């Protein structure tokens, strides 16, 4: 009797392992197919494949499959499909999978459903910097810079991406209060961040939009490795603050201007000719 039980247990274990391996292989194959479709911008086909697979397999699909489905929904701005996936298929997973939670927040923000993004964010107990970043980016996209700034103040140790989003939010605000806080934060930036050209460009943009040309010029002059984006931020700022001559002078320092820089140069020239 004991021998039979052991044989039965062993057989059950083998079947379970084989089934698990089969599911894993199936998930891997499907996620690769969906990723390939997304990479080729065939987002509708991605969701068609997802629907076909999940029709009778609502409990076995992997996080990788969910990731590709949510990315397709975001690109299509298919809010209803995204909500269906969230509430009917993966609501229990958002508590433990911060990556999927971040993707959902990004989807809601891209579809201008700020309320759903905020609800998901507020009910997420273990928040990381990436989730804060998704919320801040969403607020900026939806022209709610003040909310992005309020969120920034809740973060103990912001990384370069978060600080960059913070500067973008203040650039959108452009108020005297914004200028004061931008200066305060910029003075506390670790020296290791100073080599980040994207961060410096955002800071230049924020300073210029707040009308602090002097501080922007000082920062620009101190930057050793200047990029075209940094030149562009300065030229755009000069034009905004009616210093077109400075914009054209800066243009003459650029060896290989791109299309954006050339367009800014023409805008500066047009401003110079304006009575």
Automatic annotation (TrEMBL):
Record Gene3D superfamilies: Tetratricopeptide repeat domain
Pfam families according to UniProt: PPR
Matches recorded under SUPFAM superfamilies: TPR-like
GO molecular function: RNA binding
Coiled-coil region: none
GO aspect biological process, one term: RNA modification
InterPro entries listed in its UniProt record: PPR_At4g14850-like_plant, PPR_rpt, TPR-like_helical_dom_sf
Protein name per UniProt: Uncharacterized protein
Organism annotation: Adineta steineri
